[in-house]
Amino acid sequence: MPVDRTPVIAGNWKMNCTGPEALVLVRELITAIGDHDGVEVVVAPPFTALSAVAPELEATEIGLAGQTMHWEPDGAFTGEISAPMLLAAEAGWVILGHSERRMLFGETDEALAKKVPAALEAGLIPILCVGESEAEREAGKTHDVLKTQIEDDLAGVDPARIPDVVVAYEPVWAIGTGKTASAEMAQEAIEFIRAVLAERDPAAAERVRILYGGSMKAANAAELLAQPDLDGGLIGGASLVADDFAAIVEAARR
Ligand code: PGA
After folding, report:
1. What is the pLDDT of residue 4?
2. How many helices (H) and strands (E) does the chain have?
3. 170 flagged as catalytic
4. Which of 102, 172, 235 to mutate to test the pocket of ligand 1 (most atoms within 8 A of CB)?
5. CA–centroid distance, residue 147 to ligand 1 (Å)
6. Best of 101, 103, 215, 248 to mutate for ligand 1, by most ligand atoms within 8 A of CB?
7. Reported confidence tier of residue 176, pLDDT bands at 50, 70, 90
8. Which of 54, 166, 187, 202 is in the most buried spot, having the most CB atoms within 10 Å?
9. Please, which pLDDT band fits residue 254 given cuts at 50, 70 and 90?
10. How far, in whole angstroms, is CA 221 from its chain's centroid?
């Protein structure tokens, strides 16, 4: 009997939207998405827009996420945000290890090995992003990269808690480029990630949700989401257009 994994569609707004702009977008999204039974929907505005968005989501089932966090609860870490701060801003989720954080801001697997357990212990659902660069794929290193990221970033997570983590497979070459992994490519990589997790705990690996991210849009969502191991999407560009994001949520409904 296959395990039922509720799909997740998460919108990563990145460095877009002031508070007032976020308010307009979230209202449009709520209207466009409407009923989304059977799909967990999450939006990740910039930190400065969380307080504008949170009250709008109160009467909905849409979750709120931060885009990154520090592993310590407080301290002398200028510019950082902690798990208790996200929780107090009514976020229930946090994106960790996004490739833009890894590549542009030096986020390491070592840091993620502290951040993922810290998020879980605080009561946040981490969305852990992993993925290979174009050069790594061309050099045949995709599996090595994914295995290292998954093993290192989740090293401090008790196997019993692995199903509480959401993983996002985001090939770096597909992010914001308009190039999407083919459905077969995404399925193959995600199946591999599940197999790596199964080495730690087969039952947990069956339950963990693994999303695809990288130029997912209304036009390609249904084909990607039809893949057996693909449990949803992490959406960048298309999450800023209410009708496009709503169409992806619709494609995830079964
Ligand atoms: P994209 O971004 O959908 O704009 O490619 C995806 C992501 O970075 O999560």
Report:
1. 87
2. 11, 8
3. yes
4. 235
5. 21
6. 215
7. confident
8. 166
9. low
10. 15
pLDDT at 181 over 90: no
Task: Write the DSSP string, 5-66.
Answer: ---EEEEE--S---HHHHHHHHHHHHHHH---TT-EEEEE--GGGHHHHHHHHTTSS-EEEE
Buried b (16+ CB within 10 A) or exposed e, 147-167: bebbeebbebbeeeebbbbbb
Q: Does the pLDDT of residue 54 top 90, yes or no?
A: yes
For range 193-207, the mean pLDDT: 97
Nearest to residue 50, comparing CAs of 26, 80, 75? 26
Burial of 102 (0-12, 13-18, 19+ CB in 10 A): buried
Tokens standing for residue 123: 């009561």
Taken in order 79, 82, 85, 86, is the CA torsion positive or negative? positive
User: Structure pTM?
Assistant: 0.97
